[in-house]
Amino acid sequence: MLIFDVIVIGAGHAGCEAASASARKGCKTLILTRDLFTIGKLSCNPAMGGLAKGQLIREVDALGGEIGKITDETAIQYRLLNASKGPAVQSPRAQVDRNLYPLFMKKRMESIPNLTVKEAEIISVQKNSENQFVLTSVFGEKMLAKSVVVATGTFLNGLLHIGLVNKAGGRMGENPSTELAQSLVDFGLRVGRLKTGTPPRILGKSINFEKCQLQPGDENPVFFTFGRKNIAQKQLPCHLTNTNKTTHEILAEGFEQSPMFTGRIKGIGPRYCPSVEDKINRFKDKETHQIFLEPEGLFTDEFYVNGFSTSLPMEIQQKALRSVSGLENVVISRYGYAVEYDFFDPTQLKHSLESKVVSGLFLCGQVNGTSGYEEAAAQGFIAGVNASSFVLGEKPLVLEREQAYVGVLIDDLVTKGADEPYRMFTSRAEHRLVLRYDNAEDRLTEIGFEIGLVDKERYTEIKNYQAKIQTISEQVSKMKISKTTANKIIAKGNGSEIGDKETVQLISLVKRPEVTTKFLLEEIEFDTEILEFLERVFTDIKYSGYISKQNDSITKVKKLEALVIPDEIDYLSIQLISTEARQKLHKIRPENIGQAGRISGVSPSDVTTLMLHVLRMKN
């Protein structure tokens, strides 16, 4: 029998982060996949990052995870989204090579000490008399572990749909996990059903790019790994085109054969990333929708049709695409499809992502009701750290909402659950000005170093960077410029001139909303060795007042988070709390008063009553 400290089932983005974190923390770890060449596979779009998702990658990287490093090694285009807006909503995104990414991730997994990579299909997870997990493969091989991480993606009872035809599968061409799903349900876990989908892939040689709008990447990319200076791969452009009235009419022809509209699909799909048929059905007033043609990689002619996710019949997919400008003669290499799958209600989890039902069992990724590589990787990292902490007898790592988007993600899941595939947005974070992509290292590298996943060399590099930022900030705060120069800068942003002073403190100019870093650099000559730091310094100065207010709010929230609710509390017996609140509290069993207050249906007066009850229990 194979014996390990931690076994990770699944080698997607969640599983890879979990296995890496567990092994590097010192636990003998096994990661299992049905096919070694699907490690880190990009099941849907060939891209990483995006709105709020870019922050998640930067945070995992700051903590010592893998996804940012592999993204930068395989990126074929970088773009900073919302670059013209405020820093709280700016997010890095990258197209990546679909074939290179899993190869680089496979190589990385195989290189990690304490980590064994193995091909096997698990059909059963049980506990023995010694409270250890016993895993059984489809061929009867037994494996023993003290802790298990489930990261099986969309494979649990997966069902694929194209038109009125469906087929069991977790991904096109790959069988689902049915026996494993039942094995986990037998533990007592509550299960639900969700749906996601993917668009067709088309051949580049059949696209008329002259009819499409060129979408190049950024000349000065924002990388996902701290300190990176160079682009690793050749950069490729994307292209933009649009659906039209004819496209929508053709798609509507297929509604009678749509698995979504005919009720064949029971699972709930992602509201914020709907299929193209759902879009034209819900937004009938819109005459057009954007379609981005994204290259799948350097060594393939396939393009991903972003914005055209569909499960309509194949002939409708082709007819509709050929009505789009530039795609009149398009050849589809892979048709779009939808996939239904089982997930486990994440309110059954602790913030550590350990099951409240089964000690030592951790769940991460799409099995928790999320959507996206980045959300999966973030959960995987936390699950892997805490699975190893469980084995080692250490305190679990729990990130708070004010510390990281990772904390927001997990708190939302375990507090509110998921009645649709959960996707991260900047709007979900009440402290998003504090949780910027450009300060992830400031917030999280200390934690990564303390848990042993950020090495001394990188830790020192980041500490030196922070010291440099502090020194430059102090220099800038003392600088003054002439009224003439100041008014030139202000005029670029159409602001009101300064008329009563001959010199102006630079810091006051930076804080003006119409003044940008670009304007400042055009009119003021700074020492060349500090130029790369100024964007960050100016951002900290410009928003210092708002950040101070957010920090005051964070302090108040922390007081509520500090009041831990005893495990033995009987919520149903607290008569002064509303019936709905008692039922919600009993089901979710929040870990502290702060979490209790974020549960839907629990009012402020319920929270006050609960707080008094907890204080009486502690006294």
CATH homologous superfamily (4th level) name of the largest domain = FAD/NAD(P)-binding domain
**C-alpha geometry:** globular
Number of strands: 22
CATH topology of the largest domain: the name is: FAD/NAD(P)-binding domain
CATH architecture of the largest domain: 3-Layer(bba) Sandwich
Quote the average pLDDT.
Answer: 93
Low-confidence stretches: none
What would you note in describing this structure?
The structure is a single chain. The radius of gyration is 26 Å and the shape is globular. Helix content is 36%, strand content 18%. The chain is an alpha+beta fold. The two termini are 50 Å apart. Strand 8 (133-137) and strand 9 (142-150) form a beta hairpin. Strands 1, 2, 6, 7, 8, 9 and 20 form a seven-stranded mixed sheet that branches. A six-stranded antiparallel sheet has the order 14-15-16-17-13-18, with no helix packed on it. The protein has a four-stranded antiparallel sheet with strand order 11-10-19-12, with no helix packed on it. It has 20 helices and 22 strands. The longest helix is centred in the last third of the chain and has 23 residues, at 456-478. The chain folds into four domains: 2-153 and 182-193 and 341-450, FAD/NAD(P)-binding domain (3-Layer(bba) Sandwich), CATH 3.50.50; 201-337, Elongation Factor Tu (Ef-tu), domain 3; 456-545, tRNA uridine 5-carboxymethylaminomethyl modification enzyme MnmG/GidA (Arc Repressor Mutant, subunit A); 562-618, DNA polymerase, domain 1, CATH 1.10.150.570. Helix 1 runs parallel beside helix 9 (373-392) and helix 12 packs across helix 16.
